[in-house]
Design a protein that fits this description.
Helix content is 82%, strand content 0%. It is mostly helical.
Length: 428
């Protein structure tokens, strides 16, 4: 790994950013512990691929229904408090799952109910977290800070699933949920302690126009629309995460520890790539690099779908993580830099909706497809679909494909680019 540049080293020494990073990594680790416990417990209770898909659906529906409000809240109130309160509420929901599991009265329906509550809190947390980062660091440091933030998430995604699988095997789901709850509450305290740049939240009455302004903003800017829709459609088709319990138990013939390895594997690849992007700037041809990352994601998904060896499967998942993090860093940085601060919460809410559609709704799609045509066919066809979508989007959104340096993006330059490309870049 190259030596860190002065910019990277100084960024890590800034207390607000360090607190942001620590809070995110602890929260992300708690999420992963909880994900492993929920996935294994639901499959253990139901033996149903469709039930695994429903876990994703019940997480996504609150995000979809609340999206107009979540962005408004992030732009109207202190984003640190929004993030902290949401993490505290998620911790309380995890405590409720702990109690239900220890009491022996937990059912799949009970789990779905608490997962829906967690999905609602995450719906408010994600836009506020994305918008908060731009208030913690300078614009010139945002791409590097986004890569570091992604690195933090990936570190948690490596350690979290392994810890979740170990805790589940050691003491059952109650121990795993209790550990996750403690992590969420600690992350909430750290979020409350962040000192962000002062900002004036939006004022006045809440109107339908305000609530929908994030959607309008993204829809009228082809670069943003192309970036967020590419991630949504590609990951929705290629997401195999919901089927990992099936692969672990039925195809790869392993147990909770093997599920932990599979859950952690994408983060191993993503961590390596995100650290590289944090230390070494992304540089030119950012748009083409994003599309290359999505294509790598799809090809590696096909390899994973055909694999019957645990370590080959883990390697394929690592490449999935590498491709995904390139897309994430480009997209998140682009969304922040191309959006005025007073709109960042509402635009981040739209981005979070697309992320939720790609992840949680993608899990539901994978579960339904696996129930109909089998898990292997579902994963392989999804990977092929991801590659096809990336190639199609390169033609539909040439302005996105041709982005050079992310640092040159600003709300004004994006508006100018929109006027010159709106005729041929928008979705038909």
């Amino acid at each position: 790994m190259p030596d860190p540049s002065p910019g990277a080293a100084s960024l890590l020494r800034q207390t607000p950013f360090a607190l942001f990073l620590a809070s995110r990594i602890i929260s992300a680790m708690a999420v992963q512990v909880q994900v492993v416990a929920v996935g294994w417990q639901v499959y253990d209770l139901t033996d149903s691929a469709l039930a695994l898909g429903l876990v994703g659906l019940v997480q996504f529906l609150p995000v979809l229904l609340l999206m107009p409000l979540t962005g408004e809240v992030a732009d109207r109130f202190d984003r640190r408090l929004v993030v902290g309160i949401c993490r505290a509420l998620t911790g309380l929901a995890a405590l409720a799952l702990t109690y239900a599991s220890h009491g022996g009265w937990v059912t799949s329906t009970t789990i779905f109910a608490f997962v829906a509550v967690i999905g609602a809190t995450r719906g408010f947390e994600m836009p506020a977290q994305q918008a908060l980062l731009a208030g913690v660091v300078r614009n010139t440091d945002l791409a590097r800070a986004t890569a570091f933030s992604s690195s933090a998430s990936q570190v948690a995604t490596i350690a979290g699933p392994a810890a979740g699988g170990f805790l589940y095997a050691l003491g059952g789901p109650g121990i795993a949920y209790g550990t996750a709850a403690a992590g969420f509450l600690l992350a909430a305290l750290m979020a409350f302690a962040i000192q962000a740049a002062p900002r004036q939240g939006i004022r006045g009455r809440v109107t339908i126009e305000n609530l929908l302004s994030g959607l309008v903003f993204v829809r009228t800017r082809p670069i943003l629309l192309g970036a967020v829709s590419l991630d949504m459609v590609a990951v929705l088709l290629g997401g195999a995460a919901a089927l990992l319990p099936i692969y672990a138990r039925d195809i790869l013939q392993t147990g909770p520890w093997g599920l932990g390895i599979l859950r952690a594997a994408p983060a191993v690849g993503a961590l390596g790539m995100s650290l590289l992007l944090a230390w070494v700037p992304l540089g030119g041809n950012a748009g083409r690099k994003m599309f290359a990352g999505v294509i790598l994601f799809g090809i590696a998904t096909v390899v994973f779908g055909f694999s019957t060896n645990l370590w080959l499967s883990a390697a394929a998942l690592a490449f999935i993580g590498m491709g995904d993090v390139v897309s994430v860093v480009v997209r998140q940085t682009l969304v922040q830099l191309a959006t005025p601060d007073e709109m960042r919460g509402r635009v981040a809410a739209v981005n979070s909706l697309f992320i939720g559609a790609s992840n949680q709704l993608g899990e539901f799609e994978s579960g339904v497809a696996a129930a109909l045509i089998g898990p292997v066919a579902a994963v392989v066809l999804g990977g092929v679909g991801t590659v096809a979508v990336a190639l199609l989007w390169m033609r539909l959104f040439p302005a996105l494909r041709d982005i050079d340096r992310l640092e040159d993006i600003s709300p004004d330059s994006e508006a100018s680019r929109r006027r010159s490309t709106a005729g041929n870049a928008a979705m038909p």
